[in-house]
What we know:
Helix content: over 70%
Low-confidence stretches: none
Keywords: Cell membrane, Membrane, Transmembrane, Transmembrane helix
Subcellular location: Cell membrane
Strand content: under 5%
Main location: membrane
CATH class: Mainly Alpha
GO molecular function: transmembrane transporter activity
Organism: Porcincola intestinalis
CATH topology: ABC transporter involved in vitamin B12 uptake, BtuC
Distance between the termini: 33 Å
Mean pLDDT: 91
Amino acid sequence: MSKNIKTYFHENAGILAALVALCILLAILPATSKSFVSTRNFFNVLRQVSTNMFLACGMTMVIILGGIDLSVGSIIALAGCVEAGMVVHLNMPLPLAILIALAIGLGVGMFNGYVVSTTTIPAFIVTLATMNICRGLAYVYTGGSPVRVMTDAWKFIGAGYIGPFPTPVIIMIAILIITAIIMNKTKLGRHIYAVGGNAQAAEYSGINVRKVKFLVHSYSGLMAGLAGVVLASRMYSGQPTAGDGAEMDAIAATVVGGTSMAGGSGKIGGTIVGALIIGVLNNGLNLMNVNSFWQYVVKGVVILGAVYVDFLRNKNKK
């Protein structure tokens, strides 16, 4: 165990140092010192990070394959809106509505995976199409208006607590463990890296490349559905605008965490740190009352910087 911990810190030393430096900076800046260093804000950051972490778990697998999933933000909106609509308009029991929302995410992911694995259409194009389809369906279903749900049972998943810990944080930890096991301890995890490194060689070695692509995109869709359930609960409503730009935060967390856009390399441990960096950065910018337009600029610079570092790393390997 201690060896694994040492390896983890060694592999992620750079981004861990960046996270610590960012936290220290926000802790000493006059504009953020009082608000940032508090238990309440700590749990608030983790609660906000949880949604992005779900997406980033699936996105990490997709990017290691050499693909990308642009549909996750729109799946959040569609899953959350349908879940809320089932509860409000059909008086459906909440657990069943949650299962339907998860099924929507899984279904869209399966569709993405099927098209990507059985055609030569790039994942970028396929998921760009489903991104627009899901967002459009969310607007059609709600008529462009939020579907509000104010019950205690509804808010528990996204805004409730289990003991002193926010419910989304508990769910996040469970998902991270499951994803880490898939990536590091299963045949599927080994196959994901093989396909991402060289799909043709992986196929020649007997790996079912189509199955791997299908399963990875399905998992990404399921994670987006889960993110939709949690976010809708936290906002007390299903909103067709929910998840707008969420795919960019997920990609940012994955790339900042060290996953190569070229495919074949990356680990969920790095993605965790990447998601925390994006979450702390968002939190710090909000505490400093930075205009939301400038926040997009800052995150864009962070993504570009991370991709450039990845470029330099790959260049040095050649």
